[in-house]
Design brief:
It catalyses: L-kynurenine + H2O = anthranilate + L-alanine + H(+); 3-hydroxy-L-kynurenine + H2O = 3-hydroxyanthranilate + L-alanine + H(+). Pathway: Amino-acid degradation; L-kynurenine degradation; L-alanine and anthranilate from L-kynurenine: step 1/1; Cofactor biosynthesis; NAD(+) biosynthesis; quinolinate from L-kynurenine: step 2/3. The protein is an alpha/beta fold and 411 residues long. It has eleven helices and 15 strands. Bound molecules: pyridoxal-5'-phosphate (PLP). Pyridoxal-5'-phosphate is lined by residues 95-97, 124, 126-127, 167, 171, 196, 198-199, 219, 232. The site of pyridoxal-5'-phosphate (PLP) has 13 residues, from helix 5 and helix 6.
Length: 411
């Protein structure tokens, strides 16, 4: 594969113009959109508007005048088509961790006589931590975490299991679970299924309704480009809205928040999942970021994502200097998300050296270098440049330099 093949692909790329909708630093190839998406120009503009004009000028009247109060639902409506969810099943609020708490606790309460939450070893830690916290709060009789090896998930789905909680795309390896099949197998045993879409939403097509998922959560600041600490989203299938009661019964989830009733009465439908006042500035930034997706076909985006990861991998394999980097992501693109991960004993220092030379991946302890591929703002030619720089860092052993060994607080 030559640079000219890649520039030709860029010329034919139907998504090429999307790059213009982002602020990107010069001379940087950003392969970390799976940790923090790049800044959409619309978000930069919107934050000015919300802060200076709306808050600065219209003050409290903005809740009505600028529909701040509608943001959790309005923003959710922009996410719903990206995850295959029909109307009124998605809401934007809080973080994934908090939304997991709400959904897990509520799902456990729906499953009388069952107490096990099955999850996977190697899942993102917060998912497992939240179950451990619920176990400590409710006691083991009501909640017990059973986190099993990937190969043992199916055999762990027994009639004692209340909830199956999985991350659709593994954050370390990028392996994709078969959502449809696992959801069906679990539901055949009466198990409720909760999917974490942190590395799926905005990266590949998700079909929650078609897979008959019960619940899901996902991230605003990764592939959705909502900015650091952007609010998360929560999905609950309509069929559960009447039976479910989430425990964080705050006033924003009340059926009539401004009646100031003393007795909690949950709002009907998805709104009952709100807790406190939405973070308006952050949510407006996410809302604007989602404009980038309005005319996106997720299947077309997926095609480019696969082509980018494949080009990167092909170029990598042409370079003997890169043989030391061991691929831990699936080779089969049909089960690989929008990322490639490699292990190396000097992974941390290699990441630092790459960043210093204008290629930004990230490091995941203890020894993983993770490259994320965001089809909206990456070009095919960037794969070539990134590999060139990677070859330089590896063949000249630049990563052994002292300044690349020091660990920062956030890695
Ligand atoms: C990034 C990520 C999270 C983040 O959780 P927050 O509570 O929103 O910080 C959760 N789960 C997975 C799988 C992730 O990758």
């Amino acid at each position: 594969m030559q640079l000219s093949d890649l520039t030709q692909r860029d010329e034919q790329d139907p998504l090429a113009s999307k790059r213009m909708q982002f602020e990107l630093p010069q001379d940087t190839i950003y392969l970390d959109g799976n940790s923090l998406g790049a800044l959409p120009k619309a978000s930069a503009k919107r934050v000015q508007e919300v802060v200076s004009q709306q808050w600065g000028n219209d003050l409290i009247s903005s809740w009505n005048k600028h529909q701040w109060i509608e943001l959790p639902l309005e923003t959710a409506e922009k996410i719903a088509p990206l995850i295959g969810a029909a109307k009124d099943q998605v809401i934007v609020c809080d973080s994934i961790s908090v939304n997991l708490f709400k959904l897990l606790t509520a799902a456990l309460a729906m499953q009388t006589g069952r107490n096990i939450v099955v999850s996977e070893q190697g899942n993102f830690p917060t998912d497992l931590y939240m179950v451990q916290g619920i176990e400590a709060l409710l006691g083991e009789q009501r909640c017990t975490l059973n986190s099993v090896a990937t190969a043992d998930i199916e055999s762990a789905l027994t009639e004692e299991v209340a909830v199956l909680m999985l991350t659709h795309v593994n954050f370390k390896t990028g392996r994709i679970h078969d959502m449809q099949r696992l959801t069906r197998l679990a539901q055949d045993k009466g198990i409720l299924v909760l999917w974490d879409l942190a590395h799926s939403a905005g990266a590949l097509p998700v079909e929650l309704d078609k897979c008959n998922a019960d619940f899901a959560v996902g991230c605003g600041y990764k592939y959705l480009n909502g900015g650091p600490g952007a609010p998360a989203f929560l999905y609950a299938a309509s069929r559960h809205h009447d039976a479910i009661r989430q425990p964080l019964s705050g006033w924003m989830g009340h059926t009539s928040p401004f009646a100031f009733d003393e007795a909690y009465q949950p709002a009907p439908g998805i709104k009952q999942f709100l807790t406190g006042t939405p973070s308006v500035i952050a949510m407006a930034v996410l809302d604007a970021a989602l404009e980038v997706f309005t005319d996106i076909d997720m299947y077309q985006l997926r095609e480019k994502s696969v082509a980018l990861t494949d080009s990167f991998l092909t170029l990598k394999e042409q370079q003997a200097a890169l043989d030391e980097l061991q691929l831990i992501s699936p080779v089969d693109t049909s089960v690989r998300g929008s990322q490639l991960s490699f292990t190396h004993q000097n992974a941390y220092a290699i990441c630092q050296a790459l960043i210093d030379h204008g290629v930004v991946p990230d490091f995941r302890a203890p020894d993983i270098i993770r490259f994320g591929f965001t089809p909206l703002y990456l070009r095919y030619q960037d794969m070539h440049t990134a590999i060139e720089i990677l070859v330089k860092v590896m063949s000249e052993k630049l990563y052994l330099q002292q300044q690349y060994q020091v660990k920062a607080a956030v890695t």
